[in-house]
């Protein structure tokens, strides 16, 4: 269903169950009601997290990976049953209620696993408490303890993320405690390096060779020594910092700017797989001892910020009046004086309001337990089991699509999107399925595509697929692909 872009069981009503069944070796596939029952039965086991970590371990072992990309994705919620905290959704530039997911991918954007936050956890908090322990316990290390002992600069693995988790003290803690290196953007860069110091490097990103002007210097932030690499684009300098001592300057840039593969993964799954759709709308309670930001404290802080904005504007008005009074004629002095007195009175009123709000906020705790929240605003959370189960299937589909697209790379060297479009075209095209029990072959004859270029790319991919001699699951029939041209 997901490979065909059928996004929910209800959409199966408009597809022939018999034709779908032939693809799967069945008389017919389950229809919507039956499929929902099966999903409910599977999700009741609550084993999708274990399944996800098993797959992540297997994928990481096969890829021999040592770089993990970590980023958050907000699953926006528009229902009424759940009371969820608001998160900033960067793609919409709004704060909306939803569940925050923290994804771990490789440098090519391939997903490994993800962790869902309870309420409003930040990336730094999730890294320290959940993601790093999971990576250490569940994901295999590329290097042995002996190799790391022989080379004190060799990291166990490297994590790449954006500015949200920026903390030099935390970066040093990761290296000292676990030998984990980081690559991220630097915050609050105020100085500029001499443009003559930059040298040109060629960096291969997503199959495209890009020329970059780069320079590296050692830097100390919060008493933590790191490497700083800057990229010069016109007059703008993008600053990247890392605690990885083994990477060359152009590889630091490569791994940092490859972070967009993860953003592309989110975008592709939203557009093609209806990434944020829920199959079940059940609501669960959060642990009653879980501490969250006090909504009343936040409301007072918000009002305080608004009052301070008004105070700043009144002070600016008062300053202008004083300046204009000095420049104006004496006969207008009385008029300016009246305006100044009125503005000072308004400013005094606002400052009293600010003082009252500060006093009120001092009496409110900044955090509170879930059980202490009023019933009408008490946070809960969506049942994530069914969402995790369908996300795992979408991960498998995305990886399968990407692997298939890579087989077509000879004919589409310069366009990643073209390869994926062709894969979708193949999935949705008709084919003849011809079993031969005498020769133990299952011939799949794919119908011709829109142009000779696509047919040639499929022909090359088919030869590679046939060399694997893969058997159709549950039979002794070897898959033999052909193209009907």
Based on the model shown, name its key terms:
485 residues, 3-stranded mixed sheet, alpha+beta, 10-stranded mixed sheet, Transposase Inhibitor Protein From Tn5, Chain A, domain 1
CATH class of the largest domain: Alpha Beta
Helical residue percent band = 40-55%
Kindly report how far apart the N and C termini lie.
28 Å
The CATH architecture of the largest domain can be named as Alpha-Beta Complex
CATH superfamily of the largest domain: Transposase Inhibitor Protein From Tn5, Chain A, domain 1
Total discrete domains: 3
Shape from CA axes? globular
Number of helices: 13
Secondary-structure class: alpha+beta
Q: Spell the H/E element sequence.
A: HHHEEEEHHEHEEEEEHHEEHHEEHHEEHE
Radius of gyration: 29 Å
What proportion of the residues form beta strands (DSSP E)?
15-25%
Total number of β-strand segments?
A: 17
Average pLDDT figure? 89
The low-pLDDT segments are none
Major sheet details: 10 strands, mixed
What is the fold named in CATH at topology level of the largest domain? Transposase Inhibitor Protein From Tn5, Chain A, domain 1
Fold and architecture overview:
- The chain is α+β, with helices and mostly antiparallel strands and 485 residues long.
- It has three domains: 44 residues, no CATH class; 226 residues, Transposase Inhibitor Protein From Tn5, Chain A, domain 1 (Alpha-Beta Complex); 70 residues.
- It is 43% helix and 23% strand.
- The protein is built from 13 helices and 17 strands.
- Strands 1, 2, 3, 4, 5, 6, 7, 8, 9 and 10 form a ten-stranded mixed sheet that branches.
- Helix 3 runs parallel beside helix 11, helix 9 runs antiparallel to helix 10 and helix 11 packs across helix 12.
- The longest helix has 33 residues.
- The chain is globular, with a radius of gyration of 29 Å.
- The protein starts with 16 loop residues before the first helix and ends with a strand.
- The model has no long low-confidence stretch (mean pLDDT 89).
């Amino acid at each position: 269903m997901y490979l065909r872009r059928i996004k929910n069981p209800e959409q199966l009503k408009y597809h022939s169950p018999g034709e779908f069944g032939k693809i799967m070796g069945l008389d017919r596939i389950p229809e919507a009601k039956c499929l929902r029952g099966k999903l409910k039965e599977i999700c009741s086991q609550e084993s999708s997290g274990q399944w996800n970590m098993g797959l992540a371990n297997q994928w990481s072992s096969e890829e021999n990976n040592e770089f993990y990309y970590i980023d958050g994705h907000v699953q926006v919620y528009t229902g009424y049953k759940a009371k969820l905290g608001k998160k900033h959704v960067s793609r919409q530039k709004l704060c909306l209620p939803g569940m925050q997911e923290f994804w771990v991918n490789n440098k090519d954007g391939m997903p490994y696993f993800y962790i869902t936050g309870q309420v409003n956890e930040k990336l730094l908090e999730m890294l320290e408490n959940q993601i790093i322990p999971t990576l250490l316990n569940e994901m295999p290390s590329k290097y042995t303890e002996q190799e790391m002992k022989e080379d004190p600069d060799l990291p166990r693995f490297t994590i790449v993320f954006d500015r949200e988790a920026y903390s030099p003290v935390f970066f040093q803690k990761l290296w000292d405690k676990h030998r984990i290196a980081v690559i991220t953007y630097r915050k609050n860069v105020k100085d500029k390096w001499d443009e003559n110091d930059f040298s040109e490097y060629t960096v291969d990103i997503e199959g495209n060779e890009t020329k970059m002007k780069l320079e590296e210097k050692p830097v100390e932030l919060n008493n933590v020594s790191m490497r700083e690499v800057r990229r010069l684009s016109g007059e703008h300098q993008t600053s990247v910092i890392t605690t990885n001592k083994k990477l060359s300057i152009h590889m630091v840039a490569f791994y940092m700017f490859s972070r967009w593969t993860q953003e592309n993964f989110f975008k592709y799954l939203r557009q093609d797989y209806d990434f944020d759709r829920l199959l079940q709308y059940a609501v669960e309670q959060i642990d009653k001892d879980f501490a969250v930001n006090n909504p009343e404290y936040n409301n007072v802080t918000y009002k305080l910020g608004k009052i301070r904005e008004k105070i700043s504007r009144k002070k600016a008005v008062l300053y202008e009046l004083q300046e204009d009074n000095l420049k104006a004629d004496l006969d207008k002095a009385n008029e300016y004086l009246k305006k100044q007195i009125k503005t000072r009175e308004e400013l005094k009123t606002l400052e009293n309001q600010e003082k009252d709000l500060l006093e009120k906020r001092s009496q409110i705790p900044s955090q509170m337990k879930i059980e202490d929240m009023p019933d009408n605003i008490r946070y809960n959370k969506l049942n994530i089991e069914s969402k995790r189960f369908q996300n795992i299937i979408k991960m498998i589909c995305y990886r399968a699509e990407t692997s298939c697209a890579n087989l077509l790379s000879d004919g589409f060297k310069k366009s990643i999107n073209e390869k994926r479009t062709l894969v979708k075209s193949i999935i949705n095209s008709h084919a003849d399925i011809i079993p031969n029990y005498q020769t133990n072959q299952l011939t799949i004859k794919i119908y011709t595509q829109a142009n000779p270029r696509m047919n040639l790319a499929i022909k090359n991919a088919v030869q590679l697929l046939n060399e694997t001699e893969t058997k159709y699951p549950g039979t002794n029939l070897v898959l033999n692909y052909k193209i009907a041209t």
